[in-house]
Amino acid sequence: MADTYKFRIDHHGSLVRPAELQAARASFTEGRLGRAELTEVENKAIIDAVALQRKLNLSVVSDGEFRRADFRDAVINAVSGFSAVEGAEPSGLNRWEVSDKVVPAGALVVDDAAFAAEQTLIAAKATLPSPAYLAAHAYTDKTAEIYQSPEELGLALAAILRDEIQALIAQGIRYIQLDNPDYARFYGTPNDGWLPDVPLDVLLGIDAAAVEGLERPEDVRIALVPDWGGHRGKGLDRGVAEKVLNTLPYDRFLLPFHEQAIVDEDLLSLVPEQIDVCLGVVSAKTAELENVDDIMRRFDSAAAVKDHEDLAVSPHQGFEPAAYKPSSLTIEQQRKKLEHVETIARMCWGNEL
After folding, report:
1. How many helices and strands (H and E) does the chain possess?
2. CA 46 to CA 116: how far, in whole Å?
3. pLDDT by residue (tens digit) across 135-146?
4. Partner of 59 at 20 to 30 A CA spacing, among 30, 119, 156, 158?
5. Count of domains in the chain?
6. Using CA atoms, how far apart are residues 34 and 205, in angstroms rounded to an integer?
7. Global confidence as pTM
8. How many Å apart are CA 203 and CA 6, to the nearest integer?
9. By residue range, what is the domain housing residue 78?
10. Rounded alpha-carbon distances, angstroms, from residue 26 to 21, 33, 69, 318, 323
């Protein structure tokens, strides 16, 4: 019997923003469009995006993160204490710092996830930035006047995220994903040379605190994304990777599996038996569709390392994690990629999805 909560045909949550939504957000930023009008455009875009995901027969849907400028906004826009800083991070994301106590003004993504869930019977996924990621990137000299260390800030954020996850579960959301792609920087080679100025053990402790003590049904899956690909160079620090994957108390990891086969299989082999893995078998950055036979050979290799019943498939990362960094794919190319993922899933599991 199929495990409904394996979410075999998955994706990271962020989808390519429609041109109408991008134009409306620009008008809102410039003061030419009101909040209510922007919300109306967002609602329509989300309804259309959910309809597309339903049509593709995905096993989970998201709101595309259409109400956010980037994946961190789920917290930054709903928690006081964050302020914008001039310039960009090495990744190209806008810079933010914590300059006051972090206090939630209300729900972070519960309402967004509930709106997506209202559009379909398929499970809705809620996505959030991890507290360790936020603490590592937003802690500055100004923050030190409020919080004595990145760890203190991170644990304060972890408490906020834990409360939000509990609220999502109470709302009926059964799949929750936290993103911290920085972990790959520790067990691989950063493209830009940047590493968080926070010890790995501290980051692991913060992200663990976000899920500790949660009350949840058995059918709830809480996932973490430790890797968006591109940070492993020619090899893998197995000791560090094993520490990351064996310390974080999550139900699922989403790992890239679209290139660097030996490295990817090595990483997969370090995942504990009780944790399932979603393999990013197609690229979310290139329009060309990957060869099905190549993907299936790689999946067979993965299944030799990890029980195929504990695997799922998806693109290797979100299609547009930041709206101001345009996706390299069109919405139509994105659709074809998601169709490709569905094809692979049905070849792997048949109708037992």
Report:
1. 12, 8
2. 7
3. 999 999 999 999
4. 158
5. 1
6. 41
7. 0.95
8. 27
9. 4-349
10. 9, 9, 11, 22, 11
